[in-house]
Amino acid sequence: MRILHTADWHLGARLIERDRLADHAVFCDWLIETLHEEKIDALLLSGDVFDSANPPQDAVGLYFDFLKRLADLKTVKAVITGGNHDSASHLNAPRELLKRFEVHVFGQAGENVVDLGGAVVAAVPFLRERDLRQATSGEAMTEVQAQVRAAIQGHYASQLNTCRAAAGKRPVIAMGHLTVLGATTCDSERDIHIGNLGAVGADVFAGFDYTALGHLHRPQKVAGMETVRYSGSPIALSFSEAGDKKSVVILDTQGEGMDIRIAPIPTSRLLTRVNVSRASLTEDLASVPEASWAEVTVKLDAPEADLDRQVREAAGGRFEVLKVLADLPPSQMQSWQHTGPALNELQPREVFRELIKEKQIAGEELCAVFDELLAIREQKLTA
What we know:
Blueprint: E1 2-6, E2 14-15, E3 18-19, H1 21-37, E4 42-46, H2 57-73, E5 77-81, H3 88-92, H4 95-99, E6 103-106, E7 113-115, E8 120-123, H5 129-132, H6 141-167, E9 172-177, E10 210-214, E11 220-222, E12 225-230, E13 247-254, E14 257-264, E15 271-277, H7 281-285, E16 293-299, H8 307-315, E17 320-327, H9 348-358, H10 364-382
Parallel strand pairs: 1-4, 4-5, 5-6, 8-9, 9-10, 10-12, 15-16, 16-17
Antiparallel strand pairs: 1-13, 2-3, 7-8, 11-12, 13-14
Helix pairs in contact: 1-2, 9-10
InterPro entries: Calcineurin-like_PHP (IPR004843), DNA_Repair-Maintenance_Comp (IPR050535), Metallo-depent_PP-like (IPR029052), Mre11_N (IPR041796), SbcD (IPR004593), SbcD_C (IPR026843)
Subunit structure: Heterodimer of SbcC and SbcD.
Protein name: Nuclease SbcCD subunit D
């Protein structure tokens, strides 16, 4: 059986107010062609189908258009799990209809075992804290952390037993949407549990022949294990991913073995990070690829109020400047000058912590309360 592993599409995502729908549409076209040309039997999509619990309608339209084209192939089964950005109820709404087309959708935790014929899959979506434990007042953070991690391990152990009972000698595959310790993160990922409580070791997946992970956006194997992998996002979702080579993972099951290879995804929109000198601004920007989106950091001796305009004029329309940063010597840093990320680049937890810092409040307990309130809100949004 030949299986393709992908994750973290984040349909509906934006980058500094730029819409990414066209880039996602190009990826969907490529994926349909690849499924056909590679004679793929099954597609695994490991969470974060959408960028938000209430995605824009054009993103939902692209998703259903892809599924219609997938059904038209008549040769590819699919297993789709929910991520921390997805609404479980939104994903699950059409699941009974989609099942008739061999598309199996799991927005929330349960006994989510799928027999694909050539392999058996534990289709584990993002496990929210309410899926794992019953919270009580007065718990220490270390106690909560131990309970969450033990519950995640127990959930995968249960799924493994169910899969093995059904599979016989056929391969068993786990899907997951979580942080695995030792993996490399980037700027575009949201904390999946408060304080990274849900981060687990790769040993949680011992016994599975392959683990198809989602959540982290850089393609990578975990802990040096070829069979525990993040496929990564199909397009770069932040400038921190500008140098990443996006890909999907293709698996060939061979009896009890597994052949694994990487299939690169063509780049539809090039993101570029460049550091330039104010003295040679135009010359330095000449190296930026045409038609790319750029983040430009300019080395300055002193602040310049119209730096944005100067950089955009120097770009000359060859590429689009989405963000301009100033690299100033410490002696020139002004107390009024904002040197951190823009507000729309911060997660709510980060905004609250910046406020606490600005007001010079001893906010450790306040931050913990805010985190709890935020978790309750996100659970309601994604229920």
